[in-house]
Amino acid sequence: MRIALAGLATSHPYTDARTLSRHAELSVWEPDAERLRRFTDEHPGARVAASLEELLAAGPDGVVLTVPNPGAPKALAAVLETGAPVFMNKPAAASREQLDALDRLEIGDRVLSCSVLRFAPAFAAARVDPAEVLSVRATVRHDVGLWATGYNAWQDTPGQGGGTMVTMGVHGVELLVALLGPDVRLAGAAGAVRHYEGLCSEDSGVMALRWGSGVSGVVEIIGVSESEAYTVTVHTRGGSRDIVVEPGDDVLKGLGYEGTVEAFLAMVGGAPSPVPWEQTRAVLDILISAREAVPTH
């Protein structure tokens, strides 16, 4: 099996490769020399391509796509032309312009794009009856201080990577849409800088959601945090229940990286994406709507 990693723009493809290398031969393309060196130091046997075109021309069985968001629609279009299944690291779009560009592509069931938390064992094992739900809350705790140093500035820039509201908010919105479905709209959003003054976006935020069924939801984003954890609280008439996702002793398994790769490899074997694009697009629309609603400094 041959898997191509198209871009190393975030930390995720490095993590993906640790699982993928147990199952497949890897090839990689990344225009940034330092990022590429970090990858090949860990995977010296990986074949290095000089361009995305060269990477895809080798005919990989599957592609993991991770490029800065402004270039993502064009890169995805090139991958789709090959017919190979693709896992597109989150978020697939971070602005209305980017989402509109994705809408012009023919995205079927051979594209998977989601937060890896969807495949975390603690969440995947949870059983929730939407008919019993009164309201839901997702709390995302993930520190964003690295961006305040200038690292990966495009991720912190609202018009490019979407900032904290989009890049971290995706985890909370993803989990709630996975539980309650894509018939959801943004009811309101707010954000602020409480600690990291060097940011272009925010280090804390909140979104209010409403499903067509009448269920309301809240996503809290805590970007100033000593630990990483994700909690979904489901409120029903009988009480409240927490679903907690934490790294644990095995980060790859605990946070869903391993499960996501397994789902992608099933697609390489011929299975459709386990996450319908309708759900992914609903998540992206919520995030982008929130970004549009929150002023940045």
UniProtKB/TrEMBL annotation:
Domain Gfo/Idh/MocA-like oxidoreductase N-terminal as annotated: residue spans: 23-106
Keywords, alphabetical: Oxidoreductase
Pfam family of the protein (one): GFO_IDH_MocA
InterPro entries the record matches: Gfo/Idh/MocA-like_OxRdtase_N (IPR000683), Gfo/Idh/MocA_oxidrdct_glycsds (IPR050463), GFO_IDH_MocA-like_dom (IPR055170), NAD(P)-bd_dom_sf (IPR036291)
SUPFAM superfamilies per UniProt: Glyceraldehyde-3-phosphate dehydrogenase-like, C-terminal domain, NAD(P)-binding Rossmann-fold domains
Keyword Hydrolase: no
Domain of life where this protein originates: Bacteria
Sequence ranges assigned to domain GFO/IDH/MocA-like oxidoreductase in this UniProt record: 132-239
Protein name as it appears in the record: Gfo/Idh/MocA family oxidoreductase
Originating organism: Nonomuraea longicatena
